[in-house]
Specification:
48% helix; mainly alpha; 87 residues; two-stranded parallel sheet; flat
């Protein structure tokens, strides 16, 4: 009963709480797919400030990432965020 109430309360504010498992996480499954298919180059179109690329790096992706962002002000933030990443 308490579990159902908590789930409903979180859903009401747009959140979902799940048990985390490193081997079953979305990021791990995605990275496993990239590795399985030999992907070593990712195009991030509409990259915003680079959040997707950052998650890729945090998940262990070591290939090249080419990010595109058409909005000048946001692109500046993306550029700063990517300065320390040679790939």
């Amino acid at each position: 009963m308490l579990k159902t109430m908590l789930k409903r309360a979180f859903h009401n504010v747009g959140l979902e709480v799940k048990r985390y498992s490193p081997t079953r996480s979305e990021e791990t499954r995605f990275l496993t797919g990239l590795t399985h298919h030999g992907v070593n180059l990712v195009f991030d179109v509409g990259a915003n400030e680079g959040q997707f690329a950052q998650r890729l790096r945090e998940s262990g992706y070591s290939g090249r990432i080419v990010s595109f962002e058409p909005i000048a002000g946001v692109w500046e933030k993306l550029k700063r965020a990517s300065e320390n990443d040679p790939l």
